[in-house]
Amino acid sequence: MQALPGFRDFYPADAAVRNAVVGAWRRVALGYGFEEYDGPMLEPLDLYAKKNAGGEEILGQLYRFEDGGGRAVALRPEMTPTLARMAAAKEKHFRKPMKWFATGSFFRYERQQRGRLREFLQFNCDLLGEAGPAADAEIIALAIDTLRAFSLGAGDFVVRLSHRGAWIAYLESRGITGETASGVLRVADKLERETDESLDAKLAPLTGDRLCAADLRAFVAGTTPAELEPVMRDLAARGLADFVKVDLTIVRGLAYYTGTIFEIFDRAGTFRALAGGGRYDGLVGSLTGTGSPMPAVGFGMGDAVLCEMIASLPHSAKALEDAVQAARARDVYVVIADEAHRPWALGLLQSLRDAGLKSEVSLSPTKVGKQFQAAEQAGCTHAVVVGGEWPMVRLKTLATRVEEEISHDALAARLKNQQV
Amino acid sequence: MQALPGFRDFYPADAAVRNAVVGAWRRVALGYGFEEYDGPMLEPLDLYAKKNAGGEEILGQLYRFEDGGGRAVALRPEMTPTLARMAAAKEKHFRKPMKWFATGSFFRYERQQRGRLREFLQFNCDLLGEAGPAADAEIIALAIDTLRAFSLGAGDFVVRLSHRGAWIAYLESRGITGETASGVLRVADKLERETDESLDAKLAPLTGDRLCAADLRAFVAGTTPAELEPVMRDLAARGLADFVKVDLTIVRGLAYYTGTIFEIFDRAGTFRALAGGGRYDGLVGSLTGTGSPMPAVGFGMGDAVLCEMIASLPHSAKALEDAVQAARARDVYVVIADEAHRPWALGLLQSLRDAGLKSEVSLSPTKVGKQFQAAEQAGCTHAVVVGGEWPMVRLKTLATRVEEEISHDALAARLKNQQV
């Protein structure tokens, strides 16, 4: 019996990589003063059915069903609707800005292909209650520093910065608004991937002869929105200018964006987007019922494309592997020279674990040589031999083979000192 | 719009508690040399439908549905079937014993009542490939040390130790075997909660006049299984004897247990079980298809009862709250005396974050007094004022109000040193 297609078993080596990735996400977000939150894996279907909170594509990919009480429910396909629901319910209880992040599992029933999973991890960072460009820059800097935490540099990836407001204003100048504008934006989102013929065939029914693909390309090539200038200046002051370029080709599919938008790609153009996000000032307010606005900006980053990219770059892969190895290392193996002394060994083992040292012992009678072998295989830095010299024990540093005698009750303190 | 009943929103304060609990689980398991693993949240329904892998009660509580491809699937209600599936598929690839733990979400559609959630967290530790009593003791010691990590002591909780083999042997001595024995064990599981009359009414159809509740009580009161003696000796050598007592009242509901079994309760008897587990030597082997046996022992511990118990004991609640506060503290607030200097402040901010310091800045023009107030509210230990003295900045330790001047490019190193 196997896992369902698109779902992953995390054996210890895989779980260690996953934990290193999630650990880096957490560390960077905490460094930015963001606080972790989370919501349920299962939500009312209505949360995603609301037009603003998702978009047509996601609705078709939902794992949805009726629960035992006849409620229409869905496994969460993304975090933003849950965040908006939670923020709308209690925003009065929190000082602004609210700087929140989440790491967790999400579910989409997608066609099976490389890098597409049906259960995947995503890192979500959102900053609520701050409308200015400094908040946009803070979110983009956080996304950049997250990738830098995986030893990815300005030569490896680029943040492509765009502005939904500039797009809306341009379309208005062509007399295109409302639902038609949303439709054009969904077509414009494909500027990079489709030919002019294909795009024109989609634009014509929406806009008649008011707009063609060539117009969109001219707009993209010739525009640097003034709204992005303070964002760029802020990022430059942080020393992060090399990681960002203005690129109006970025449109973002979802309807709820209102201002700055961005996507992050590898420079080589090999992979799909590593992350994407932007400003969505209307969404949370639309859920409070009071209609009071709540400025918001955020991004999401999945684990699948990120790990593919890390694996493709030796310096980044090595850094991740080193972090994984360090996390999996253990401190001490308690070697039992003679089974008669097992009670002493168990007491010593307990004192080492009480001191916070990662410690192992053989759980059945085993030859001393085999115990040393197990110590090496388990990644222990030290072995300590309990034998007839008790209360003295023999401490061996496995890398150097250096041995010393030490009293069993001084061992934990001795090894703790060495750790610092 | 709210979360579904039985599902939790983790606002930052709640998520911080959750992370402290999960963090302690992880720390103790890693200290025992256990490795983390995980599986999918969604599994084939068949995994739970197999009789051995669950039990009737859990089947009725499954969140089950058909996915987009017509597969019968279920949200995982417990970890053991996934562990058994994963271990059975690849056990040849791993050195024995395999010492694995998992922390994650599980789902049961249960009637709503206090302490019962429909999505809950569970800590699962399992040790595969070792048949002896030292493995039983290692698992029980790990469960004890997990509770000790929450400042719970031998006066607060007790491990009630029993043995499925002793029960089976006793029933055999009364001529009761197979399905009938399983039925009797399910009745015996209620010895503490039901009257003799109620129990006898359930036993009679199973055993006729061969067995009554009084027989079961006499067996429980008069038996200390010899199989448990080496387990008790091992735990005594670790200094953990005070945490354990033999108590045959513990039967465990699930069919798959074969040897040592245990449940952990608060001494006061206020709560449901904090944790439960035991030896299940047949389950993994039954899934490999090869029929080769795989000894296994493990336990599960949920977050709901644990957190109720911690909250009920001031010394434990205080320890958890201290851990939460320490985790939520931040290092530095960069105070901008004059907006003209924001670029300097942003550069300094970036250098602090690059050094791993949790750092904040105001994202809009704010009076200096308000920035200091925000620093205190955010739990920053330090504030640094960027102003006209640049490249010098003023560092203020918020607890003592002590101020000093320091060059901006020496600040990160200065604060890092203080951290250690």
Provide a brief overview of the structure.
By secondary structure, the first copy, chain A, is α+β, with helices and mostly antiparallel strands. Helices cover 41% and strands 21% of the residues of chain A.
Question: What would your notes on this structure say?
Answer:
Two copies of one chain form a homodimer. The first copy, chain A, is of the alpha+beta class and 420 residues long. Chain A folds into two domains: 311 residues, 2-Layer Sandwich (BirA Bifunctional Protein, domain 2), CATH 3.30.930; 90 residues, Anticodon-binding domain (Rossmann fold, 3-Layer(aba) Sandwich), CATH 3.40.50. Helices cover 41% and strands 21% of the residues of chain A. The first copy, chain A, is built from 16 helices and 16 strands. In chain A, the strands form three sheets. The first copy, chain A, has an eight-stranded mixed β-sheet with strand order 1-5-6-11-10-9-7-8. The longest helix of chain A has 20 residues. Chain A is elongated. The model of chain A has no long low-confidence stretch (mean pLDDT 93). At the A-B interface, helix 1, strand 1, strand 2, helix 4 and strand 5 of A face helix 1, strand 1, strand 2, helix 4 and strand 5 of B.
